[in-house]
């Protein structure tokens, strides 16, 4: 008796807007976890340049160079094109098509209730976000996920609402449209798995990712809008310069005052990047006032510099090989397009739309 075929890997999909060079918050909040996931799942990771247009439509000049910087940071951080698919969203044309089709069935009220809709309008009050594209941003995000029939979407607690909306859109689509009947040999060859057989767009699940508290240099959440970031590509001198004025435990007004690393942003950095031995020295020295904040910051800088060294070495190599980076992105684009087009064949047929010469013509 032959051995049964191994079960196919579950699929993961996630993306990141091209805001320029990535910082430690981007890394620990998502990218570090993606590197781990590529050994456990079939992973698709993309640079969401179409998403950038929802807020930066008036001046898109930075999108292309920022996309290149994010691609470099993806590869430098350890995303391996042999173990995952890395691509640019706008180069895969189904990312334009599916949002239009899903927009036909998505109620307006669903979009207006998305928590980030009014929040982003308030935070970006200098921009006119009263556009169709900005309102429909969640449909674009849902399409990204559903195109690849992702089983899981790795997100933090604050992003679960977007995945839940994706599930609702998929559920509504599956209520309206059923899988079309088999019409030719090509359809037989690509019949759905048992898991997919009952619906065209499977509902993705949230994959909650560990996101340690990582403050910026001013103690707030690390964010480019706050100007408090440490970039993955920052040289050692700059990292140390940024940490020197970093806020600490407010209880340590004088060098002789004891502090508490659990109430100190620098302590939070130590918990992520420092060894257990260094962390023990930090707790002992801070709580007894045996060390000053300058020394503590120096140790934190040492740990961050050491952690980023291999990432920066890989980035430097990729920077010197732009043709290789383009080759990786082109290969990712091709793989992504093949997978996305498989979904679109079913979607078009179910919605009664004519297929291309390579597909089925809907009756």
Describe this structure as you would to a colleague.
This protein is 50% helix and 7% strand. The relative contact order is 0.13. It has helices spanning 24-37, 49-56, 63-77, 94-103, 108-112, 115-123, 132-135, 137-147, 160-176, 185-189, 236-243, 265-273, 276-287, 293-319, 322-350; strands at 11-16, 42-47, 85-88, 152-155, 205-208. With 363 residues, the protein is mainly α. The chain is elongated, with a radius of gyration of 23 Å. The chain has 2 domains: 11-213 and 321-350, Rossmann fold (3-Layer(aba) Sandwich), CATH 3.40.50.620; 224-318, Orthogonal Bundle (Tyrosyl-Transfer RNA Synthetase), CATH 1.10.240. The strands form 2 sheets. It has a 3-stranded parallel beta sheet with strand order 1-2-3. A two-stranded parallel ribbon has the order 4-5.
Strands ordered across the widest β-sheet: 1-2-3
Q: Based on the structure given, which CATH architecture of the largest domain is correct?
A: 3-Layer(aba) Sandwich
Compressed to H and E, one letter per element, the order equals EHEHHEHHHHHEHHEHHHHH
Mean of residue pLDDT values: 90
The residue fraction in helices comes out at: 40-55%
CATH topology of the largest domain: Rossmann fold
- What is the count of structural domains? 2
Largest sheet: 3 strands, parallel
Coarse morphology: elongated
Number of helices: 15
- What structural category do the secondary elements indicate? mainly alpha
CATH superfamily of the largest domain: HUPs
Distance between termini?
43 Å
